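Technical note accompanying the year-one report. For the benefit of new consortium partners, we illustrate the data format agreed upon in the data management plan: each record pairs a sequence with a structure-token string. No post-processing was applied to the example shown here.
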Amino acid sequence: MARYTGPKTRISRKFGEPIMGHSKALQKKNYAPGQHGKGKRGKKSEYAVQLAEKQKAKYTYGLLERQFAKTFELAARKEGITGENLLKFLESRLDNTVYRLGIAPTRRAARQIVAHKHILVNGEVLNIPSAQLKPGDSIAVREKSKSLEAITVSLSTRSSKRFNWLEWDTKMMIGKLINYPDRPSIPENINEQLIVELYSK
């Protein structure tokens, strides 16, 4: 499936947040990209604000429109608050979980690691980045991939921050999705209610 492969800093500048990774350029140019970026002012319409929030979520988690819409449909069918369900499903994707565990430094790198069959889920190779994990699922680095430089470097520089919905055994290189995260635990700056309102139109 196609993915956004353009300049990451451009997207971050568009939203004014480092949603695709930290960049020095974002600090130097804290305005929208393009020749008219500095002059982009004025009040946005309600629709424009809602659409921008959806676009931000899509870029953050690396989904295209069709896949994002399917995830939203899944969230809407599940009991509970639709917006929170949406973020729970985005967070429990395999590529995002690999990123959260520190096996990869970015979601884009995590997607590549999964696609190249370096990850086991419940003891079996799973190379579908969009696979939805369930509480109790184990996520491990394949034995022959444990010495892979991209993985060892990422784990060695892994942030001390831990996520309360995940477990990680550094020695065995195996993690576990304990449960779906609750909204306050998810660090992403996304107003999911705006996305729900957009899809409700």
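Partners are asked to follow this layout when depositing records. The longest helix spans residues 46-61.
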